[in-house]
Write a structure and sequence with these properties.
Layout (H helix, E strand, L loop, with lengths): L2 E12 L2 E12 L3 E5 L6 H9 L6 E6 L2 E2 L10 E4 L11 H11 L4 H14 L15 H13 L5 E5 L7 H18 L2 E6 L2 H7 L2 E6 L2 E6 L1 H6 L4 H6 L4 E9 L2 E4 L2 E4 L10 E6 L4 E4 L6 E10 L4 E7 L2 E7 L8 E6 L5 E4 L7
Parallel strand pairs: 3-8, 3-9, 6-7, 7-8
Antiparallel strand pairs: 1-2, 1-4, 4-5, 9-10, 11-12, 11-14, 12-13, 14-20, 15-19, 16-17, 16-19, 17-18
Length: 349
C-alpha cells in the first residue's frame, strides 16, 4: 500500500487544554480509515487539521510526500462532509452539487457531466430540480456526499455524517458508504464515536482516548484482540477478569484453570482476561467451569443478555435460550475465545 497522508508530531491546544501532543499517524491510499473514541478525544480536531480548517500548533501534515500544513482548505485535494451537511437551502439539488464546479470556472458541459455522474453514484438522478427542504434526512445526506465527490478529491473526510439519521437509515447508509468508497477508489477518513460504524465499514480502525492512540488495527483485531482495558471496554462489551498465567497455554481466574491460546506471558504473571458476552457457552451445571446466579436479564431481540453473579462479581453473558432471574447457570468458554492482556497498573479498573 502507498502512504498518502502522514501526520508528523502534531500538537494542538485550545486555551490551556492540550488536545493533541506529538501525535503521529499515517494513512494509506484508497483506505477506509476510521478514528473512533469518546467525545473530546481529539478525533474531530485531527480531521479539521487534515482538512485545513484548523492549524496545528506544531507538526506537519504531509500529503503525497509534500508538506501541505500551510495550505488553506480550498487548496487541498480534500473534501469534507459534515454532520449537518451544510447544504445551501436557497439552491436546488443540481445547484448545490454544481456550486464548487462553478467556482472553479468549469464549462456548462463539464458541470452537467459531473453532476449527473455524482447523482448516479448516490442513486438520486431524478432529484436534480428538487428543493433541499423537500428532501428527507437520508436524501440530504446523499446530496452532501454527491457535492463532496463531484470534484473527485483524493481524500474524503467524513465528520460523523450519519449522526442525524435514524437507526435503520444509518445502518443502510453504512453499507452504501463502504460500497461508494470501493467504487470511487479514494481514501475515506471517517470520524465517529459509534463503535458499530467503525467496525462495519473500515479497513483500519484507530481508537483514540485523550489525544493518544490506544490501538490501530483491522476491525477484527480491534474487537477480538484489544490491547488494553480502554479498548476492550469502549469497543463492544467485555468481561475483564483478573487472572494469572500458568504457562503451557493455561490461565487461572475465578479459582479455575482454563486453556487459552496466548503465549506472550511468563509463568505466574498477572494478566487481564477478556471474554466477550457472546463467547461464553451456557452448559449444564455438571459440565460447567463456572457457575453463577442470574441477577438481571434483558431481551435484545436476537438474544437475551444476562447479568450473572459469580463470586460476587458481575458478568455479562449473551444466550439464545431464556432463563429466569434467580436461576443458577453454568458457563464454559472455548480457549480461542479467551484473550489475555498485559496488566497496566496505571489504567482505571
Amino acid at each position: 500500500m502507498k502512504k498518502l497522508i502522514e501526520l508528523k508530531n502534531i500538537s494542538k491546544a485550545f486555551d490551556e487544554n492540550q488536545i493533541l501532543e506529538d501525535f503521529n499517524l499515517y494513512i494509506n491510499e484508497n483506505e477506509f480509515i476510521t478514528l473512533v473514541g469518546p467525545s473530546g478525544c481529539g478525533k474531530t480536531t485531527l480531521l479539521r487539521i487534515i482538512g485545513g480548517f484548523e492549524s496545528a500548533d506544531s507538526g506537519q501534515v504531509i500529503f503525497n510526500n509534500k508538506d501541505i500544513s500551510l495550505l488553506d482548505a480550498n487548496e487541498r485535494p480534500i473534501n469534507t462532509i459534515f454532520q449537518k451537511y451544510a447544504l445551501f437551502p436557497h439552491l436546488n439539488v443540481y445547484d448545490n452539487i454544481a456550486f464548487g464546479l462553478k467556482m472553479k470556472k468549469k464549462t456548462k458541459e463539464e458541470i452537467d457531466e459531473l453532476v449527473n455522474w455524482s447523482l448516479k453514484l448516490v442513486n438520486l438522478e431524478k432529484m436534480k430540480t428538487r428543493s433541499i427542504d423537500r428532501l428527507s434526512g437520508g436524501q440530504q445526506q446523499r446530496i452532501a456526499i454527491a457535492r463532496a465527490i463531484v470534484n473527485k478529491p483524493k481524500v474524503l473526510l467524513l465528520d460523523e455524517p450519519l449522526g442525524a439519521l435514524d437507526l435503520k437509515l444509518r445502518q443502510n447508509m453504512q453499507y452504501e458508504l463502504k460500497e461508494l468508497q470501493q467504487d470511487l477508489g479514494i481514501t475515506f477518513i471517517y470520524v465517529t464515536h459509534d463503535q458499530e460504524e467503525a467496525l462495519s465499514m473500515s479497513d483500519t480502525v484507530v481508537v483514540l482516548n485523550d489525544g493518544i492512540i490506544q490501538q490501530i488495527g483491522t476491525p477484527e483485531d480491534i474487537y477480538n484482540e484489544p490491547k488494553n482495558r480502554f479498548v476492550a471496554n469502549f469497543i463492544g462489551e467485555s468481561n475483564i477478569i483478573k487472572g494469572r498465567y500458568l504457562g503451557n497455554k493455561l490461565v487461572e481466574f475465578e479459582n479455575t484453570i482454563f486453556e487459552c491460546v496466548d503465549t506472550n506471558f511468563v509463568v505466574d504473571e498477572p494478566c487481564d482476561v477478556v471474554i466477550r458476552p457472546e463467547d461464553f457457552d451456557v452448559v449444564p451445571l455438571k459440565q460447567a467451569k463456572l457457575t453463577g446466579i442470574i441477577t438481571d436479564k434483558v431481551f435484545k431481540g436476537v438474544h437475551y443478555e444476562f447479568c450473572i453473579d459469580i463470586n460476587e462479581k458481575e458478568y455479562i453473558v449473551h444466550a439464545y435460550e431464556d432463563k429466569e432471574i434467580g436461576d443458577q447457570i453454568g458457563l464454559s468458554v472455548d480457549p480461542f475465545e479467551i484473550h489475555l492482556m498485559k496488566v497496566n497498573e496505571n489504567e482505571n479498573t
